[in-house]
Amino acid sequence: MVGVSPPAEAGFSFNDAPVLAPGTYTDSIVAGETRYYRVHLDWGQRLAYRLTVPAQDGVRVQAAAFYVTLASPLRENADQSAGTPTYQLIGGEEDQTMTGSSLVPVRWANRDATDSDLHPYSVDGDYFLVMDASYTLARPAFTMPFRLTVAIDGAAEP
Predict the structure, then answer these.
(1) For residue 21, how many C-alpha atoms fall within 13 Å in the half-sphere facing its CB?
(2) 126 to each of 103, 119, 122, 155, how far by Cα in Å?
(3) Using an 8 Å Cβ cutoff, are 147 and 52 in contact?
(4) Which of 74, 93, 114, 156 is the most exposed place for a label (fewest CB within 10 A)?
(5) Average pLDDT of 124-149?
(6) What is the mean pLDDT of residues 114-143?
(7) pLDDT at 122
(8) pTM
C-alpha cells in the first residue's frame, strides 16, 4: 500500500535496539517507557531524524513529555545540532513534530577537538536514538503512536 510506513518495534535497551536503515517507520511508546533504535554511521556521515506524534482524541494538552536524545557507539550522550529541541510536550488537537541531527559528521579528528561536545562523534559504528516518554501528567497512562523518519547525510569515507 502506498504511503504506509512499516512498523519498527524499538528495543528496551541499547542491547536489543533494532538497526534502522534510512526510511520512515511507525511505532508507539507508553508513557513511562524508554525505547531504543540504532543507526549505523560510517566515517563522514551524520544522522538526521523527524519524529511526529499525531493528535489523539481525549489526550489533553501537555499530557506527557517525549524526549529524543542521541548516544554514541560508546553509549554516551551525543549532543544534537544547535537549536534542536530534545523534547516535546504531547497532547492536544495538533500533531507534534520534532526534528534533530547529530552535531557533526563522524570523524576520527573529533576526538582531538577543543570542543568536548564533538568527542562522541569520533567513533564510527551504531549510534542510538533514545526515546523517553515521561510518566503521564494525566491519568490514566496512554500509548503514543509515532512516525519516525531516519536519514543519513554524507557518503561513507574510508
Answers:
(1) 2
(2) 16, 15, 12, 16
(3) yes
(4) 114
(5) 85
(6) 85
(7) 94
(8) 0.89
Which triple of cell numbers denotes residue 121? 562523534
What's residue 47's pLDDT? 96
Cβ atoms of 154 and 105 within 8 Å: the answer is yes
Question: Letter for the amino acid at 130?
Answer: V
The three cell numbers of residue 119 are: 568527542
Per-residue model confidence (pLDDT) at position 1:
42
Residue 26 neighbours by CB under 8 Å, 6+ apart = 5, 6, 7, 8, 145, 146, 147, 148
Alpha helices in 15-153, H assignment, sequence order? none
Cβ-based neighbour number of residue 145 at 10 Å: 12
Rounded CA-CA distance 133/111 in Å is 32
Q: What is the DSSP letter of 112?
A: G
The b/e string for 64-92 (b: 16+ C-beta within 10 A; e otherwise) is bbbebbbbbbeeeebbbeeebeeebebbe
| CA angle in degrees (0–180, nearest 5) for 47-51-56 | 170
Confidence of residue 19 (pLDDT cuts 50, 70, 90): very high
Q: pLDDT of 27-63, one tens digit each?
A: 999 888 999 999 999 999 999 999 998 888 777 777 7
